[in-house]
Here is the input.
Amino acid sequence: MRLDRYVSQATGTPRTQTTRWIRGGLVQVGSVVVKDASAQVAIGRDRVRLRGAELDPPGHLVLMLHKPAGVVTSTDTSIGPTVMDCIPADLRRRDLAPIGRLDKDTTGLLLLTTDGGLNHALTHPRRHVEKAYVAVLDGALCADAEARFATGLALGDGTLCQPATLQRLAADQVRIVLREGKFHQVKRMVAACGAAVVALHRERIGDLWLDPTLLPGRARRIDGDELAALGVGRPLEEEAA
Ligand code: URA
Here is the structure.
């Protein structure tokens, strides 16, 4: 791959700019400053540095964020603190976007990626990727809440939900597993059963659990087995049937 393209893709910066960096002597391949933007570099073999800092090889980035409360799931950083503010500088890319959204007060597992295809696959309504939440409640759920979740309950405005799982963990705590992602869905399902959500935390997407060692507000890269745990390589359920 050409050096200007490598630096452009690795940093999410237009090639006009990366060419200027290269010509200005800011880019090294191995220990050698290379000023020729058309020089060839091998992904995975050559180590490319910008201003002395080694660049991650180009390729899509998938991040796990432990979303803290109080930040909005948006790429528009002009609206106040957003999840993008939690991403360390070395993992920021222009095309990085959250996969789905969590409410401002919701904590827990949020994925972000530069891979539009992965984003689409994980949010595709027919893929039915499981999302597990733990909710702290105010008020008592109706006695048949589990059954109503299991058969697919109707929200206050009549919207029908797909079957979901409700598990009571304590008098005021439940685990809810959804296979779709409607706006404020957990809060609206709980409200339809007579209680209110006072705290909400997402612990799992597909078979991928939030890393218990990742502190709120911290993000890290995922790949390999963790990426596979999302199950996007599997066919849609109706294709598999
Ligand atoms: N359901 C909600 O109500 N809020 C979230 O943030 C996620 C799911």
Notes: The longest strand covers residues 196-205. Helices lie at 3-11, 15-23, 116-123, 145-151, 185-192, 224-228, 237-240. The chain has three domains: 3-54, 62-125+208-236, 131-205.
